[in-house]
């Protein structure tokens, strides 16, 4: 606003930018509630002022009438507000519901919150700290998890936030429309560096974004996941030849898995993560619960890499363990104690 | 001073009923009823026993309405806490289509 | 026992008003206690929604024999307390004393059995954070959660039972010294209400902790 | 339906607006006042007189008000510069935690019930004292013990987990004195339960003859409702803080995600207490405002039944809505929908009260004494605060403004604009009754206006900051928020002056104030029918009540038509 520049003050924003269509919908609801409450507040304030002025105590012999109530008016303002409140509730719910319906073809990003930084991971392997580059005009689904305490991925420009919990994947999705650089905050108190976890959401035009992706290409997440898969010797059980001691992971992602106790569940990111960290929790049907727990040996990012690798496995992708694929340097010499199996 | 307690005979009979109920509820835990079944049966018998203790041992049955209100208020507010908290936990995986 | 009325505090007009104030006061206090235990039981039920099968197997490993015997012991102490209150209101001093003694004895018996059960849990490797902790076929984390709830709830109940024992012995001393005039059995009634509440808490804890799992005949051991 | 408008000659002529200096009493030997009768320290520290215990509470609670206020001042000074100009991040976290804990548990929750309620409630229902006087004294000692434990932990060691103690931060990552603070708050919780128990039993059993439930003053109704909330909510806080302490001491706990526990479970149990706790804070303030508006408009309360029922409804509904604190915390969608709808319903009783206060002033004879200024200030600021809650109950808007300065502005409008104004109004209203002295009229009215102005400048910019997205509990912030923060800090300095002023002219009035007669404001409450300061047992003989509580302009007919 040039007004501020005119009087030599720094630019003072009074209203947040609208970087997505959702932001517009939330603002319209905000202004509706502002109008209704503003009206109610103004009328109460006005009545107070009028009564205070007109009925101020002028003479000592003032005679004030004895009014004890007016039932119709009472019930009026008891039941009256229910209608505007119902509209606010329904409208708020309608705009909020789309949180739970990310489009299936959304651009997917993984974010790990840890004490006092955001670590972002693009599927193509690009890694960022406290920054998230997004293509404008294309929906993006962000899957988040925390490594220690509860954080909160707050994006005022998109009018959305979500608490990032340790031990559970949470998702939020946006459809950025206006290219630009917007603030990213941590909105849940998380300790000394809570105020340091401020980052930036950079929305770029699609061509700029793909150029940025090419410039920052490293090993894709799936590739990093494969290295880990070998390093942790998962391949010694998860193999496709005769003496496999664990389920074949090719094409597993998204399929429904029959468990030992007869129930079935979808093999999504959470199922794979739980199978890595708490193997005895959901054991697939024909197999014995012999898988050791890797809790404490893999960080959340490494789990995400393994999940990305398992997702990328198609028919015949699993490596054949033979002498030309020796365990990489630094691999554990013997399998960790089979936590799950009965001693 | 009006007598505000229950006669000793009724007290002893109630005690006998409570012991029988205790033995049955422990006995039922030897059957295979699955987690929900065990809890539901156990809690309903427990509620029955708790009711007996309150009515007879704590002579609620001869107390004025205010005492019933106090007892009822505690249970009502506990049910608010249980129902609304479990409403979150039981529907956490229910996502809109 | 001399039948003189109890000392009337200045702010009350009649003895009946003073008595009903004390009794109602204890009932309202017990409502707050219901919510104290209720809060933790709600946490237990909420966590159990996530892991029903594992909590059932974990409950199956609790010592149900001692739990059952303790229930009957506590109910008997409740009977003793009720009869003590009745005797106090009749003014029979020695009857009140004997019943109070029996109640205190049974209460101590409960605590003794409970202490032994804690030792048995330690011996069977059910106490988390000790080297002997043996999760068996339940995931270690889930059994720890269940045992945490078990120790927090039964521990809090044992604390309340000890407070109850203190009240009963203080009441017995006043009865012995004859300070308890017949019409003033309000104190006995109020202590009785608290004792019965501690009974009710155990009556609810038994199914929530012990009986929410399946037990085998082999579990009946000390 | 016409209003039952009757114009009767008033029972006694409406007084000129200034409070009357007491005509010299006839020579009859007046019973000695509760202040002077038993003398010496011991008589104060071991008193069971509800009026003296109220004075003891006033001393301690006022001290804690200034401790919390000091923390707030340093926070506001630190936020003047974007990079945090005054304190380090660790100290800032300890300061806002101290501000939260001290203000919530050691000022807002206890102040009106224990100071004004303890003093006035028994007199309002014609009782000699509360039902359990010794329990009342014990509640003060337990309150002070809890305060000593918590304040040593919070001020000398420091606690940096926020007043909400969310795990896993409070149990895993905080290396500060969380356990002593939690134990201190649990001990203070016992004191709250004792006060609540005392009030409930007193209102049930010690009402004077003729004082039916329909003739209870609204101050008694609101304190009764508050006591119900105290009794039914505080135990769950004790349980959940004990679980936090166990988890920190034992190293394992039920909220630990690595064991499979759920941190959100803590939030459920914590907010089951903490939302009703905000109604514990505001309800007594509403009771005080009802007394002030009726007295200074010389008008019967408009819709007595609705206002009394609204107090009880707030106590009941207050327990159904805690989930609106957890819309973004990972709660299930269906639970969030339920809590959002219930949160809108809980706004209705508060709206009823506001409309009834305003209607009471219609055709009244309004005198703008200091208490009335605080009352009108309360009505306006509480209305804005309450209605800003309607934004937060809408799921979509809450997702944007949760944990931002919009929330800070919302609850400060209600707690500071509403609750503290009501306490100051009640203090100024019953000061002549408590001390028998009148305070300076011009100074007290100036203080009220100063507080009102300072308040607006402090907290209105925070609404704008909140919608811009500035998160709460930030030691430093992006530069674009600086101007609004400087405005807010400027307002805070005016507010600080406004709060310090009353303690000068009130202490001054103790020594040099004109003696106030039994009824300086010509009010109709039962507490004004006895001497001020009142004798030990309040009334020479227990009064018999024949009429309703606010018969200002009555022809003597029973108001409950």
Describe the fold and architecture.
- The complex is a heterotetramer of chains A (343), B (97), C (222) and D (561).
- Chain B is mostly helical.
- Chain B has one domain (8-90).
- Chain B contains 3 helices and no strands.
- Chain B has helices spanning 8-28, 34-57, 65-90.
- The longest helix of chain B has 26 residues, at 65-90.
- The N and C termini of chain B lie far apart (66 Å).
- By secondary structure, chain C is mostly helical.
- Chain C has one domain: Four Helix Bundle (Hemerythrin (Met), subunit A), CATH 1.20.120.80.
- Chain C has helices at residues 15-50, 52-60, 64-90, 93-123, 140-176, 186-210.
- The longest helix of chain C is centred in the last third of the chain and has 37 residues, at 140-176.
- Chain C is elongated, with a radius of gyration of 21 Å.
- The mean pLDDT of chain C is 88.
- By secondary structure, chain D is mostly helical.
- In chain D, helix 4 (111-124) packs parallel to helix 14 and helix 12 (370-393) runs antiparallel to helix 14.
- Chain D contains 16 helices and no strands.
- Chain D has one domain (53-529): Cytochrome C Oxidase, Chain A, CATH 1.20.210.
- The A-C interface holds A 261, 278, 280-281, 339, 342 and C 53, 136-137, 139-141.
Enumerate how many helices of chain C there are, as a single number.
Answer: 6
Helix % of chain D is: 55-70%
Query: How many structural domains in the coordinates of chain C?
Result: 1
Helix/strand class of chain D: mainly alpha
Order of helices and strands of chain C: HHHHHH
What portion of residues of chain C is helical?
A: over 70%
Mean pLDDT level of chain C = 88
First-to-last CA distance of chain D? 14 Å
In terms of quaternary structure, the protein is heterotetramer
* Helix and strand run of chain D: HHHHHHHHHHHHHHHH
Radius of gyration of chain D: 24 Å
Coarse structural class of chain C: mainly alpha
Mean pLDDT of chain D: 89
Give me the CATH superfamily of chain C: Cytochrome c oxidase, subunit III, four-helix bundle
What summary fits the major beta sheet of chain C?
none
CATH architecture of chain D: Up-down Bundle
CATH homologous superfamily name of chain D?
Cytochrome c oxidase-like, subunit I domain
């Amino acid at each position: 606003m040039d007004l501020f520049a005119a009087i030599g003050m720094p630019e003072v924003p009074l209203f947040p930018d609208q970087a997505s269509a959702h932001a517009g919908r939330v603002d319209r609801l905000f202004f509706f509630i502002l109008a209704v409450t503003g009206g109610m507040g103004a009328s109460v304030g006005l009545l107070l002022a009028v009564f205070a002025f007109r009925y101020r105590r002028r003479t000592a012999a003032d005679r004030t009438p004895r009014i004890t109530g007016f039932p119709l008016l009472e019930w009026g303002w008891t039941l009256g507000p229910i209608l505007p409140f119902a509209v606010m509730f329904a409208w708020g719910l309608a705009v909020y519901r789309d949180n739970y319906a990310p489009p299936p073809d959304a651009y997917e990003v993984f974010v790990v919150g840890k004490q006092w930084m955001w670590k972002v991971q693009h599927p193509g392997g690009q890694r960022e700290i406290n920054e998230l580059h997004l293509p404008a005009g294309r929906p993006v689904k962000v899957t988040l998890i925390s490594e220690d305490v509860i954080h909160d991925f707050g994006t005022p420009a998109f009018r959305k936030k979500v608490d990032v919990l340790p031990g559970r994947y949470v998702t939020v999705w946006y459809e950025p429309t206006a290219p630009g650089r917007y603030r990213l905050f941590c909105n849940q108190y998380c300790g000394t560096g809570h105020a340091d976890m401020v980052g930036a959401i950079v929305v770029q035009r699609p061509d700029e974004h793909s150029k940025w992706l090419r410039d920052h290409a490293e090993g894709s997440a799936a590739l990093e996941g494969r290295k880990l898969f070998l390093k942790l010797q998962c391949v010694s059980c998860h193999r496709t030849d005769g003496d496999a001691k664990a389920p074949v992971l090719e094409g597993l992602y998204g399929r429904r898995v029959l468990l030992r106790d007869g129930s079935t569940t979808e093999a999504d990111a959470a199922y794979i993560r739980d199978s890595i960290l708490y193997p005895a929790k959901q054991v697939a049907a024909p197999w014995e619960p012999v898988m050791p727990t890797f809790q404490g040996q893999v960080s959340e990012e490494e789990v995400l890499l393994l999940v990305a690798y398992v997702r990328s496995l198609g028919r015949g992708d699993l490596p054949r363990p033979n002498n030309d694929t020796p365990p990489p340097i630094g691999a554990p010499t013997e399998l960790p104690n089979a936590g799950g199996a009965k001693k | 001073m009006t007598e505000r307690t229950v006669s000793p005979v009724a007290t002893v009979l109630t005690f006998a009923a409570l012991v029988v109920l205790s033995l049955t509820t422990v006995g039922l835990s030897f059957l295979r009823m699955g987690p929900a079944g065990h809890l539901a049966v156990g809690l309903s018998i427990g509620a029955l026993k708790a009711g007996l203790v309150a009515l007879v041992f704590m002579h609620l049955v001869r107390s004025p309405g205010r005492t019933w209100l106090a007892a009822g208020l505690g249970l009502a507010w506990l049910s608010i806490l249980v129902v609304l908290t479990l409403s979150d936990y039981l529907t956490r995986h229910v996502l809109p289509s | 026992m001399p039948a003189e009325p109890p000392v009337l505090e200045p702010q009350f007009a009649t003895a009946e008003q003073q008595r009903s104030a004390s009794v109602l006061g204890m009932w309202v206090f017990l409502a707050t206690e219901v919510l104290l235990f209720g809060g933790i039981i709600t946490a237990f039920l909420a966590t159990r929604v996530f892991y029903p099968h594992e909590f059932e197997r974990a409950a199956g490993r609790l010592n149900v024999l001692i739990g059952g015997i303790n229930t009957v012991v506590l109910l008997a102490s409740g009977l003793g307390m009720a009869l003590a209150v009745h005797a106090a209101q009749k003014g029979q001093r020695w009857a009140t004393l004997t019943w109070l003694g029996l109640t205190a004895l049974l209460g101590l018996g409960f605590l003794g059995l409970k202490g032994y059960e804690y030792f048995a849990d330690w011996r069977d490797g059910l106490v988390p954070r000790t080297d002997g902790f043996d999760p068996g076929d339940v995931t270690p984390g889930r059994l720890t959660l269940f045992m945490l709830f078990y120790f927090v709830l039964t521990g809090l109940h044992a604390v309340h039972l000890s407070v109850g024992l203190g009240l009963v012995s203080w009441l017995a001393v006043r009865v012995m010294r004859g300070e308890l005039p017949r019409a003033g059995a309000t104190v006995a009634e109020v202590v009785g209400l608290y004792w019965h509440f501690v009974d009710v808490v155990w009556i609810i804890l038994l199914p929530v902790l012990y009986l929410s799992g399946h037990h085998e005949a082999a579990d009946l051991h000390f | 339906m016409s209003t039952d408008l009757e114009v009767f000659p008033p029972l006694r002529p409406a007084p000129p607006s200034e409070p009357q200096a007491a005509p010299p009493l006839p020579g009859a030997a007046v019973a000695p006042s509760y202040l002077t009768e038993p003398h010496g320290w011991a008589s104060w520290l071991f008193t069971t007189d509800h009026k003296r215990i109220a004075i003891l509470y006033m001393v301690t609670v006022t001290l804690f008000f200034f401790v919390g206020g000091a923390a707030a001042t340093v926070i506001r000074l630190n936020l003047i510069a974007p990079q945090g100009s005054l304190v380090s991040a660790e100290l800032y976290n300890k300061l806002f935690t101290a501000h939260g804990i001290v203000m919530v548990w050691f000022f807002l929750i206890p102040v009106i019930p224990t100071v004004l309620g303890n003093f006035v409630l028994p007199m309002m229902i014609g009782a000699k004292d509360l039902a359990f006087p010794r329990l009342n004294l014990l509640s003060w000692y337990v309150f002070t013990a809890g305060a000593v434990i918590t304040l040593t932990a919070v001020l000398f060691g420091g606690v940096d987990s926020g007043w909400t103690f969310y795990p896993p931060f409070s149990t895993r990552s905080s290396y500060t004195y969380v356990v002593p603070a939690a134990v201190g708050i649990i001990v203070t919780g016992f004191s709250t339960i004792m006060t609540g128990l005392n009030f409930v039993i007193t209102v049930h059993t010690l009402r004077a003859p003729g004082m039916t439930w329909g003739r209870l003053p609204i101050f008694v109704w609101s304190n009764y409702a508050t006591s119900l909330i105290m009794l039914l909510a505080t135990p769950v806080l004790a349980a959940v803080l004990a679980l936090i302490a166990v988890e920190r001491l034992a190293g394992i706990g039920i909220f630990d995600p690595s064991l499979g526990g759920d941190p959100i479970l803590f939030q459920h149990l914590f907010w089951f207490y903490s939302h009703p706790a905000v109604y514990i804070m505001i309800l007594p303030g509403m009771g005080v405002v009802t007394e002030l508006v009726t007295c200074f408009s010389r008008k019967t309360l408009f819709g007595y039944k609705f206002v009394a029922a609204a107090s009880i409804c707030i106590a009941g509904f207050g327990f159904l809505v805690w989930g609106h604190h957890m819309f973004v915390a990972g709660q299930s969608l269906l639970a969030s929908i339920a809590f959002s709808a219930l949160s809108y319903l809980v706004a209705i009783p508060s709206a009823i009260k506001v409309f009834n206060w305003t209607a009471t002033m219609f055709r009244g004879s309004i005198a703008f004494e200091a208490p009335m200024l605080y009352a009108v200030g309360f009505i306006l600021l509480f209305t804005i605060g309450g209605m800003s809650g309607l934004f937060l109950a809408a799921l979509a808007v809450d997702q944007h403004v949760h944990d931002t300065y919009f929330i800070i502005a919302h609850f400060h409008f209600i707690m500071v604009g509403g609750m503290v104004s009501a306490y100051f109004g009640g203090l100024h209203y019953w000061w002549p009754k408590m001390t028998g002295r009148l305070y300076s009229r011009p100074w007290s009215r100036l203080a009220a206006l100063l507080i009102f102005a300072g308040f607006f400048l402090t907290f209105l910019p925070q609404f704008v900051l909140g919608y811009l997205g500035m998160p709460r509990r930030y030691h430093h912030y992006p530069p674009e928020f600086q101007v609004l923060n400087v405005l807010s800090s400027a307002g805070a300095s005016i507010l600080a002056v406004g709060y310090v002023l009353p303690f000068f002219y009130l202490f001054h009035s103790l020594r040099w104030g004109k003696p106030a007669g039994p009824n300086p404001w010509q009010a109709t409450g039962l507490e004004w029918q006895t001497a001020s300061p009142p004798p030990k047992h309040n009334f020479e003989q227990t009064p018999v009540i024949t009429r309703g509580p606010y018969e200002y302009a009555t022809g003597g007919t029973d108001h409950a038509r």
